[in-house]
Please model this.
Amino acid sequence: MNIRLETPADFREVENLTREAFWNVYRPGCTEHYVLNRYRDKPDFIPELDFVMEEDDRIIGHVMFSKAIITLDDGGVFPSWTFGPISIHPDYKRKGYGLKLLIYALGKAREMGVGLLQMEGNIDFYSHAGFDLASKLHIHYHGEPRGAEVPYFLAQELIPGYWGGREGTYCPPKGYFVADENPEAFEAYEATFPPKQKLRLPGQLGYEG
Ligand SMILES: CC(C)(COP(=O)(O)OP(=O)(O)OC[C@H]1O[C@@H](n2cnc3c(N)ncnc32)[C@H](O)[C@@H]1OP(=O)(O)O)[C@@H](O)C(=O)NCCC(=O)NCCS
Model:
C-alpha cells in the first residue's frame, strides 16, 4: 500500500473512483466526483493535501482538503479547513484503508499548520481519527438551530488551542455545491462516465421507503 500526491494523470481515474465509492450511498447516484472535478482549480483547494492511495497496482483511495471559514459570533471570520470527498473503492471498503489514508493526511495537514478541521460525516468512522461533535467546540452548523444536536457535524483541533474557545458558525465552501448550482453542467459531465443505475436505498439522506 502506497500513499502519494495526486497528479494530473490520475484525475480521471480518481474521479471514477470517487463516483464508484459514493454511488447510491447518500442519494440515488452521486455528485461528489463532479465536486472534485471542479474543485482542483479553485483557490480553496490545497494541492499539497490531495492524496491517492495505491494497492494492487491501482488507485483505491483518495482524499482532498479545502480552506474554509467559520463566521464568529462577534462578526469576525476565522480561517479554518475542511476535507472531502474521501473515497475508498467499494472492493476495498472496511479493511482499514480509509482510516490509514485519513490519519496519514491529517498528519501532513498538521505539519502544514492546519489547526482546525470541521466536516459532515459519520462519527462511527471519523471518531477513530480523533473527530468529535463540533458542538463540543461550540462550532455550529449553518441552517441548524443553535441548540440542536447535529450528529453528523464533526470537528477536530489538529493544533491544540487553535480554536481558542471561540464560538461561531460553519457553512461549507461554495465549491461543494457546484452540482446544485449548475445541474445541466453536472449532467453533461456525468454522461461522460459509463451508465450506472440510480437506486433509492435505505440509509440514504431523506429515505422514506
Ligand atoms: C467512508 C470510507 C472512506 C471509510 O473507509 P473504509 O476503508 O471503508 O473504512 P475503514 O475500514 O478504515 O474503517 C475503520 C472503522 O471505521 C468505522 N467505519 C468505517 N466506515 C463506516 C461506515 N460507513 N459506517 C459506520 N462505521 C464505519 C468502523 O468502525 C471501521 O472499523 P470496522 O470495519 O472494524 O468496524 C469508505 O467506506 C468510503 O469510501 N465510503 C463511501 C464514500 C463515503 O461515505 N465517504 C465519506 C463521506 S463523509
Summary: The chain has a mean pLDDT of 97. The pocket of coenzyme A is lined by residues 21-22, 25, 84, 86-88, 93-99, 121-122, 124-125, 128 (CB under 6 Å). The CA atoms of residues 23 and 55 lie 21 Å apart.
